[in-house]
């Protein structure tokens, strides 16, 4: 059950954080339901600043475990792009059972000539966290999730994590991060079938997956269907995620179905509204 909920969430995270006179911003909100009485809320915030595109996606997901205990997953992914090239991705991931903190990570991956280098801050108890990261302890409380934490990250003395690095040989053109791909880059896919490499930040194995994506034109825009192939998913039946985008370049809806050794699950996410005009990548659409 827990493994399936994790898959549900996966299917669903600083100089460039400062304001700029030349910035453009777009804010969208989404909501969804899944099996296991799951409910999700998602906020996306995209802006262009000084030639960079910043995509901030915040996901809050809850579900019922054996109809008795509420399981919550919170994730924020903040990715920064130069054109279509990923420069940095920061992920704040939290997992709670009945308001008891099971795990909390703050990971930052920065692009270097050798690949994406990872750093991590983590803790299981507030006392431990205060002792190890006193300059970052104000970000422990999950009730404050979504608060801007990146400016304080250097004061946390993050641990260098070579075991989380992505080798430079895998920094292929078009490499995406999961939430930015799902809620932003899907809108700029070519109107034809394609394969998209996706970096899974924080994973110790299978850190890059390649998504075969089928493109279908319909009256209101485009439909994109990605086959999800990963070791923890069953090969048959196939797992998939489908997104619908409007002719104006908005993500309208997303559906997914997942199949694993311990069962299956499905869900649907829809857009609830957007503010401002759609933000294009800083160096223009391909």
Any overview of this molecule?
It is a single chain. The chain has 286 residues and is mainly beta. The chain is built from three helices and 15 strands. The chain has helices at residues 2-11, 126-132, 178-183, and strands at residues 24-34, 38-49, 52-65, 69-82, 85-97, 100-112, 115-122, 159-160, 166-167, 194-199, 208-218, 221-228, 239-246, 251-260, 263-275. The chain has a 15-stranded antiparallel sheet that branches. The longest helix has 10 residues, at 2-11. Residues 1-23 have low confidence and may be disordered.
Key terms:
single chain, 286 residues, 15-stranded antiparallel beta sheet, 3 helices, 51% strand, globular, disordered N terminus
Brief write-up:
The chain is mainly beta and 286 residues long. 8% of the residues lie in helices and 51% in strands.
